[in-house]
Write a sequence for this structure.
């Protein structure tokens, strides 16, 4: 089975923040999980370089656009390394030689099918969104996402006949041919399409773009709209537009799964505009679009524009990559925004990993060490451990089902449920008091089995944690487990907390 997994490419008008870390870690888990299931996987991410907002940000930084874009793109690539992201390809749209030929091919094929035309247009344009906005969508005259007043722009642009594909898109999404997760986002997209689709502008005057971007084929007065350019990366990174189309044929046209992971702010581009462009050129559609919500700080969306971004590389330096990945995957809600704080990150690690998973494995290995000289016994009759055995055997399927719904939190709650069941078996049977060797061996073997299943289940989510657990649970050449010792250290709070604050957070966030 072949699976092509992609993250959306971010603008490089500033350094990455914790919201970018959320998406790239989620995408990494989906890709790793697919590998875990023995699928043939390609995972691509990168940087969106050809945006007007990058030009404006470079001006403010008083740097040449080329230098500014390259520097920030490098920070996003460094973020991947810091977060332990195992991408097949990091694709930069302004420098990768595969990109321009593919974008031009998309344009020419859509044009030849009668889906591109020129007309004059006047509208309200938000640079932050890189799109025209309807006046009804504004809040007190301001863009709801960026809090700025859009510019009134009047110009001649090329337009794409989006309206031609309204009925087709409705059917594709309703039937889950293009499946959107979660259901709330699918319903929002269907409502948007059902309200009527209008053709949209897909070029900008080269003068306004200051020459930055890809020129419209045969029309040097215009540059291709950044969203047409950026969406094309899903194909151009596979060699679409080149003579050798083997990667494109394998990973796009003939792939079993084409999974795209995006933030909720760009759903319209990926669920409406992008599928319509693909229909226009006769290409396959994504099979699944997974949408994540926003991270907030004190209730406000974290963004480069607002300046309230949390530097994820600094978080990794301070708390470690596993603690950052664990919080992003265990604490972030599937539906609804999630407020980030360092305190929550620390508490989640200390409770779940140190006090939960790590403590169980160390506790189990200690019992084997004391009762069986560090030799894990072979399983006998399950007896009182039968329920634990059943739950252990079901863990992989539970996680498969949760991740199919794009639900990382439920996946890790399932792991913690097995941790809880294992601890309850220890507490109710008190193995250190047992004299029945057959029963003791059955209990210890089921506990070891559960711990190993937990370690295996965690491999896509927190690879370093999984590796540490496997090390603790793998016998050496002498057939004995390593000496029991804690695998993880507690993290210190980033700032003093009152007992009341601790209690309020734990009561509200523990489950």
């Amino acid at each position: 089975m072949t699976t092509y997994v992609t993250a959306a490419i971010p603008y490089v008008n500033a350094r990455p923040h914790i919201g970018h870390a959320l998406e790239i870690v989620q995408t990494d888990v989906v890709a790793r999980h697919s590998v875990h299931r023995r699928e043939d996987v390609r995972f691509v991410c990168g940087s969106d370089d050809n945006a007007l907002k990058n030009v404006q940000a470079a001006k403010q930084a008083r740097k040449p656009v080329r230098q500014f874009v390259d520097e920030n793109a490098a920070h996003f690539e460094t973020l991947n390394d810091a977060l332990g992201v195992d991408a097949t390809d990091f694709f930069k749209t302004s420098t990768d030689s595969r990109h321009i030929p593919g974008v031009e091919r998309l344009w020419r094929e859509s044009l030849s099918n009668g889906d591109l035309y020129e007309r004059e247009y006047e509208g309200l344009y938000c640079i932050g969104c890189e799109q025209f906005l309807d006046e009804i969508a504004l809040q007190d005259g301001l863009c709801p996402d960026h809090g700025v007043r859009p510019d009134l722009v009047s110009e001649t642009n090329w337009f794409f006949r989006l309206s031609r594909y309204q009925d087709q898109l409705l059917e594709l999404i309703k039937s889950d041919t293009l499946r959107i997760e979660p259901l709330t986002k699918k319903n929002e997209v269907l409502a948007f399409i059902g309200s009527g689709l209008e053709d949209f502008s897909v070029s900008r005057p080269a003068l306004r773009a200051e020459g930055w971007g890809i020129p419209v084929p045969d029309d040097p007065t215009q540059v291709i709209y950044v969203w047409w350019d950026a969406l094309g990366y899903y194909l151009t990174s596979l060699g679409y537009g080149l003579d050798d189309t083997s990667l494109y044929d394998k990973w796009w046209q003939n792939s079993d799964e084409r999974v795209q992971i995006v933030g909720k702010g760009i759903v319209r581009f990926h669920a409406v505009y992008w599928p319509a462009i693909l229909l226009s050129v006769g290409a396959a559609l994504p099979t699944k679009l997974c949408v994540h919500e926003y991270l907030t700080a004190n209730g406000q969306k974290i963004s480069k524009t607002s300046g309230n971004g949390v530097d994820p590389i600094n978080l990794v330096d301070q708390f470690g990559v596993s603690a950052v990945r664990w919080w992003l995957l265990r604490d972030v809600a599937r539906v609804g925004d999630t407020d980030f704080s360092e305190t929550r990150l620390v508490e989640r690690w200390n409770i779940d990993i140190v006090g939960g998973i790590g403590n169980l494995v160390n506790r189990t290995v200690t019992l084997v060490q004391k009762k069986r000289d560090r030799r894990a016994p072979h399983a006998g009759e399950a007896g009182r451990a039968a329920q634990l055995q059943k739950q252990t055997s079901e863990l992989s399927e539970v996680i498969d089902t949760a991740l199919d719904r794009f639900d990382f939190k439920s996946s890790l709650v399932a792991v913690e449920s097995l941790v809880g069941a294992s601890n309850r078996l220890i507490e109710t049977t008190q193995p250190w008091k047992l004299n029945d060797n057959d029963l003791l061996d059955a209990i210890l073997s089921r506990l070891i089995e559960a711990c190993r299943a937990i370690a295996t289940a965690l491999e896509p989510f927190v690879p370093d944690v999984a590796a540490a657990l496997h090390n603790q649970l793998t016998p050496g050449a002498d057939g004995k487990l390593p000496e029991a010792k804690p695998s993880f250290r507690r993290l210190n709070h980033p700032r003093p907390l009152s007992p009341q604050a601790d209690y309020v957070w734990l009561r509200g966030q523990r489950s």
Q: What stands out?
A: Residues 342-372 form the longest helix (31 residues). Confidence is low (pLDDT under 50) at residues 496-511. The radius of gyration is 26 Å.
